Amino acid sequence: MLLKKRKWLTLLMACVCGVSILAGCGNTAQPSESTGTNQTDAASQEGDSTNSDNGSEIKVVMARSIDSSTLDPAMASKNQDIWMMNFALEGLVRSSEDGKEIEPAVADKWEISDDSLTYTFHLRDGVKFSTGEEVTPEDCVYSINRSKNMEGSPWSGMLSVIADVKAEGEDSVVITVSQPTPALLSLLAMFPCSIMPQSYCEEVGDEGIANSPVGTGPFILESWEKNNRMVFKKNPYYWQEGLPKIDEFDMNVVSDDNTRMMQLKSGQIDMAEPPLSQMAELQNTSGIVVDEFASTSVDYIILNCQNEKLSDPRVRQALELATDKEAIIKAVSFGYGTPADSFISPSAPHYNTNLPEVTRDVEKAKELMKEAGYENGMDLTVQIGSGSTSSLQEATLLKQQWSDIGVNLNIEQIDSATASANWSALNYEVYFSYLTSDMTDTSELAELWCVYDSTQCWGSGWNDDRQKEAEELVQKAATEMDEEKRMEYYCQMQEIVAEEVPNIPLYNSSFYIAHTDKISNLVQTPLGNYRFETLTKAQ
Fold this sequence. Notes:
single chain; about 550 residues
C-alpha cells in the first residue's frame, strides 16, 4: 500500500497544520455560516429520543480550539476533520477502542480467500443510513471507489492496492486486491472508506458531502455553523441497539484556552480540549475530571539527510545525544509526555520494545562530531512557523542544548505555509513535526518514513543504503500475511531508523479530555477518533 508520490505534498501540508492545532493555536472565531441539511425530520418519527426517566432530552456540549474544514471522507486529512468522522460515518469494518483490532461495522462478517486476494463482506441485516434508507452493496462499491478514484484525494495512493470492488447479490461486497495485503482490513476501517448512500452523494455533490455527510454512524449532523458549532443528533436507525445514550452532541469552537476552561468550570459546557498549561489546575478543580487516553502521537525533529552537514549519520546521532528530551517535555508539554525512542508509538501494534533508550550524553556526542570532521562544530538553522509559541520554546531549548557540542542553531521564524513548502522541497536543515496513525496497522507510518518514493522518507531526504534496507523490510511486511514475520520485519526496520536518525523522536503524548463529573463512558481511540456513542450524562 504505497502512497503515490504525487499525493504526498497534500498530506504533508495537512499534518504540518496539525502541529499548531494540537498545540492549541485555534482559529479566531469568524462570522457564522450555516450549512448542512437537516436529516432529523424523518428520523424523528421513529425511535425513542429520550434517555432520562422524566423524558427530557440529554444534550452534551464539548468545546475545541479549532473548527473542521471538511467532512468529506475522501478529502479530509487534518486531525480536526478526521477525528469527527466517527460521529456520522462508518466503514464496512471499524477499529476497536484500543486502536489495535478490527471489528464489524456495516458488515458483520467476512471471508478471505486462501490466496489472500479476495475479501467477501456480508452486510449487517437491516443496516440503514441515518436517512432511514437501507444500505446496499452498490452504496459500498460507490463509496470506496469514490475515495480511490477522486482526483486530489490524499488517500487514493493507499487505496490503489484495491484492484476491484463489486456488489454480489443483495447483501455482499467483494473486494479484490492486487497482492496479499495484511493491512487491508485496517485500511477499510479508515475514514476514506466510510459507506455513504450513492443517491444522496450524487444529489448533493462534493460540496454537499463536505458540509453534511450521511452515513450509518451513531449521530446525524443536523447543522454546522462554520467556526462556531456543529450539532449532532441521535441516529434512531443506528444498528447498535440502545446507542447512542445521549440525544444531542454539540461541538463548539472556542479558540481561546482561558475562555474554554472558564466555560467548563462554570458549567456552560460539559467537555473540552484542555491546554496542557492548565492541566494541573483542572485536576485539582472540584467537579472536573481529566481523562487520559493512549495515543499514537509522536513529536520529533526532522533532519535533512541530503544537507551536506547532516548527510553523515554520526552527526545526526550526535544531535540526538545532545538533545535533552526530558527537559523539552517539561518545558514545552508541562511534563505531559514520555521520551520517545522510535517514530512509532508504544500504542501502535508493531512497536519495538527492545530499542535502546537514548539519553543525553554530551561527551559521546562530541566524539561523534569529531569523527565526522566537525570537531569545531557547525551552524544549523531550524525553520518554525511564526506565531507558534511552543515551537519557539522548543527551538530555544534545542539551541541551548546543541551549543554544548559546538552546534549553533539559528532560529528562523517564517510563515507556516512557507516553512511547510521548504520542508516538502527539502529546502531546510532542521524542522519540527509530529504524526498520529490513522489506522490499526503500522504500514502507514512505516511507508511514510521508510519508502523514499512515497514521501521522500517524510521529507527527511533519507536515501542511502541503510534506507534501502529499511524500505525493503517495509515492502516485505506490506505483503506478509504471517503476523510474527511482519513483527520481525517492522522491528528490524525500527532498529535501522534508530541507528541512522533521519529524525530525532522526542516524546510520546496522550490525548486528554476535561469534563464535568456528570459525564461518563467517553472514549478517544489511540488514532484520535472520538467514540461517544456510549457516553452518558447524569441528570
